[in-house]
Write a structure and sequence with these properties.
Layout: H1 3-17, H2 24-40, H3 45-59, H4 70-86, E1 101-106, H5 113-125, E2 136-141, H6 148-159, E3 162-163, H7 172-186, E4 190-195, H8 203-216, E5 220-226, H9 231-244, E6 248-252, H10 261-270, E7 274-278, E8 286-288, H11 291-298, H12 304-314, H13 317-328, H14 334-346, H15 350-354, H16 361-365, H17 367-385, H18 389-393, H19 400-410, H20 414-434, H21 438-443
Parallel strand pairs: 1-4, 1-5, 2-3, 2-4, 5-6, 6-7
Antiparallel strand pairs: 7-8
Amino acid sequence: MFEGISEKFAGILGKVKGTPRLTEENIDSALREVRMSLLEADVNFRVAKDFIESVKQKTVGAEREKNITAGQHFIKAVKDELTAFLGGQNEGLVRRGSPPFTIMAVGLQGAGKTTFCAKLAVWFAGENLAGKTEKILLVPADVYRPAAAEQLKTLASQTGTGFYEPPAGARPEEICSGSVDFARKGGFDTVIFDTAGRLHIDEELMEELKRIKTTSAPGEILLVADAMTGQDAVKAAEGFNDALDISGVVLTKMDGDARGGAALSMRAVTGKPVKFLGTGEKPSDIEIFHPERITSRILGMGDVLTLIEKAQTAVTDSEAEKMTRNLMKNRFTLEDFKQAMLAVGKMGPLESIGAMIPGSGSLLKNPEATDKARVAMKTTVAIVDSMTPKERRNHRILNGSRRKRIATGSGTTVAEVNRAIKNFIKMQSMMKKGGKGKMGKLAGLPRGLA
């Protein structure tokens, strides 16, 4: 996501970075390119105009901090303003009143509401809120779309989530209010309403949603919008907000949206925060929307915190503790190296991970390099699996005959074994250098860091 605008910004900021002095002329030149990049990314025209004016005010004739260059001052102004336009900081879900906490998902047909409801249930169940496991109830309030209830029931079964069976012939508002009573008696912590959608906003739909809001008083009303529809998603958000006073926005299909116009415009146009991103088809493909982290991704500065969070969900507590102990004792072994490769494989497509690693933009632009990296990871795992426990603990004993045996056992060549060991030694060296500093701290971070 954001690949298109990220590449454009990298080019623009690269030119400005070495600028010894900021003048109105060179600032105007850079901002013209920034404005064009925003419009090409399908950012709302008014939002783009306001953004350019804000950056200009912070750079033309403004005093800059000591110890930073003129170019760095400009980049900082762009980063600060972009973060502000995205919302400034994450605004999470707000619990109001006594349990159960109710969430109403609304949106147009095809935006991905039903899938999002299941993803949100998985997010809650993954100890991502208040540090405790949640008991979730999914509620099928769409009585029009064929098999809508069956789809939600299937997702509930797949994710181990509770499902409310509505009475035959019940109206949507009756289904929702009835489910809240059911949840209260059953000890559920959170109830999620999957409401009906339409191809376009109409009065009948809005009146139905208003009735649900009145009878069930949901703690959160989240608009689920398809990010790939760009400014149409923003217009839909305006319509739903006018009728329901939504509490936040969820942008789905972000993995297929290279432009990012909807995400960049949503807060500034509607005044409502983006709270979650849907980043894939799996139930776990959901991210909290952190404006400052998204800004870093767009500007090619990476998103290390989200990368850490993904890594922490990809390994078990015991594996993480063992790796941390080895790091602290400077005993990073080939077995740890293999576990690191497996963890990366569980974290999702390399393309999406690359966007979170500072300086890895070239990986996103080169599918061939991505494919080679993927194959190399699988090869490395096979090579380590063909070693004895003693060899995994001490790579120094891997002489020529041992390497030849490992190559035969793993179905690789001696050259590939040599390359894997060389990469391990490089990574081990990095770990030793960072073991008592930054790397050690990252390895010891608790789950659920936000």
